[in-house]
Amino acid sequence: MYSSEITQASNFVKGVDTVFLITLGVSFFFLIALTVVMLIFIYKYNRKRNPKPTQIEGSTSLEIVWTVIPFLLTMLMFYYGWVGYKPMRKAPSDAMEVTVYGRMWNFSFEYENGKRTDTLYLPKDKAVKLNLVAMDVLHSLYIPAFRVKQDMVPGLENNFMWFEPQRVGEYELFCAEYCGLQHSYMYTSVKVMEDSAFQSWMVDTTQVVAENIDSPTATGRRIMQNIGCFACHTTDGSKLVGPSFKGIWGEEVTVTTGGKERQVTVDEEYIRRSIYDPNADVVDGFNKGLMLSYEGQLSEEDIENIIEYLKTLH
């Protein structure tokens, strides 16, 4: 049972819930009606009451009734479904746009001023358009409280969802399409704020200043956490989707480059190439094509901080 706080979390809640209740009502109607008819037939035509089989002639009227009624109910469900769905595909021209990046296995959100977060912050009572970009495989962005869900398909242009948050609060956001080993970890939240609080958050540079004050090592780890590195790589030496970061700095590793094996030293050049062109040198024992490039998403300063962090993982 949803509380009233969540029930009206967005402008699409009422329409989606109406379709759900109508469909559920029709389903229950047929479940009960067919069960009752079945029980009547079992009672009326059992062997004791009807020892000699009798031929029952067809009924044109009955055929029409059980054809027309289901058809009308189907059209009723279609109508409410279409009325609820159609507005979802036309975002207001003045909607605030946020680009959502989905990759194995995390979401990141980029705002129009370039600010990036791993939590979706939104203003109350303002139309929001989420432009959906899948970086690797098929994902599906789902916000249950808002009653919105949309597949994120790699390479698909003009893929979006929109809605208007209508209640301040924090809501779940997760991937609803199985996308690999740690699909269940692809989870974050939506924080809806009053517009004045949101505008203050948008222009707030405190977080950036704090990151600059932090050591490069701490900043590097935070960056790697935000972009989902630890979903595929461990820091304790255990094997996951990709090689562990533990003790990797300065070591020689066997990689396949252009179909040929060679030995390379894990240094700054190797780390930078692995981030920008991860399929150039594939570490022995791991598969090619599981990691996509972060070029354009990480700055040179970000790379330098990541390198400083990796140096500490002895």
TrEMBL record:
<keyword id="KW-1278">Translocase</keyword>
<keyword id="KW-0249">Electron transport</keyword>
<comment type="function">
    <text>Subunits I and II form the functional core of the enzyme complex. Electrons originating in cytochrome c are transferred via heme a and Cu(A) to the binuclear center formed by heme a3 and Cu(B).</text>
</comment>
<dbReference type="Pfam" id="PF02790">
    <property type="entry name" value="COX2_TM"/>
</dbReference>
<dbReference type="GO" id="GO:0016491">
    <property type="term" value="F:oxidoreductase activity"/>
</dbReference>
<feature type="transmembrane region" description="Helical">
    <location>
        <begin position="20"/>
        <end position="43"/>
    </location>
</feature>
<dbReference type="InterPro" id="IPR008168">
    <property type="entry name" value="Cyt_C_IC"/>
</dbReference>
<keyword id="KW-0472">Membrane</keyword>
<dbReference type="GO" id="GO:0020037">
    <property type="term" value="F:heme binding"/>
</dbReference>
<dbReference type="GO" id="GO:0004129">
    <property type="term" value="F:cytochrome-c oxidase activity"/>
</dbReference>
<dbReference type="GO" id="GO:0005506">
    <property type="term" value="F:iron ion binding"/>
</dbReference>
<dbReference type="InterPro" id="IPR045187">
    <property type="entry name" value="CcO_II"/>
</dbReference>
<comment type="similarity">
    <text>Belongs to the cytochrome c oxidase subunit 2 family.</text>
</comment>
<feature type="domain" description="Cytochrome oxidase subunit II transmembrane region profile">
    <location>
        <begin position="1"/>
        <end position="92"/>
    </location>
</feature>
<keyword id="KW-0679">Respiratory chain</keyword>
<feature type="domain" description="Cytochrome c">
    <location>
        <begin position="215"/>
        <end position="314"/>
    </location>
</feature>
<dbReference type="InterPro" id="IPR036257">
    <property type="entry name" value="Cyt_c_oxidase_su2_TM_sf"/>
</dbReference>
<dbReference type="InterPro" id="IPR011759">
    <property type="entry name" value="Cyt_c_oxidase_su2_TM_dom"/>
</dbReference>
<dbReference type="InterPro" id="IPR014222">
    <property type="entry name" value="Cyt_c_oxidase_su2"/>
</dbReference>
<keyword id="KW-0479">Metal-binding</keyword>
<protein>
    <recommendedName>
        <fullName>Cytochrome c oxidase subunit 2</fullName>
        <ecNumber>7.1.1.9</ecNumber>
    </recommendedName>
</protein>
<feature type="transmembrane region" description="Helical">
    <location>
        <begin position="64"/>
        <end position="82"/>
    </location>
</feature>
<keyword id="KW-0408">Iron</keyword>
<keyword id="KW-0349">Heme</keyword>
<dbReference type="Pfam" id="PF00034">
    <property type="entry name" value="Cytochrom_C"/>
</dbReference>
<keyword id="KW-0813">Transport</keyword>
<dbReference type="InterPro" id="IPR009056">
    <property type="entry name" value="Cyt_c-like_dom"/>
</dbReference>
<dbReference type="InterPro" id="IPR008972">
    <property type="entry name" value="Cupredoxin"/>
</dbReference>
<dbReference type="InterPro" id="IPR002429">
    <property type="entry name" value="CcO_II-like_C"/>
</dbReference>
<dbReference type="GO" id="GO:0005507">
    <property type="term" value="F:copper ion binding"/>
</dbReference>
<feature type="domain" description="Cytochrome oxidase subunit II copper A binding">
    <location>
        <begin position="93"/>
        <end position="204"/>
    </location>
</feature>
<dbReference type="InterPro" id="IPR036909">
    <property type="entry name" value="Cyt_c-like_dom_sf"/>
</dbReference>
<keyword id="KW-0560">Oxidoreductase</keyword>
<keyword id="KW-0812">Transmembrane</keyword>
<dbReference type="InterPro" id="IPR001505">
    <property type="entry name" value="Copper_CuA"/>
</dbReference>
<dbReference type="GO" id="GO:0042773">
    <property type="term" value="P:ATP synthesis coupled electron transport"/>
</dbReference>
<keyword id="KW-0186">Copper</keyword>
<dbReference type="Pfam" id="PF00116">
    <property type="entry name" value="COX2"/>
</dbReference>
<keyword id="KW-1133">Transmembrane helix</keyword>
<dbReference type="GO" id="GO:0005886">
    <property type="term" value="C:plasma membrane"/>
</dbReference>
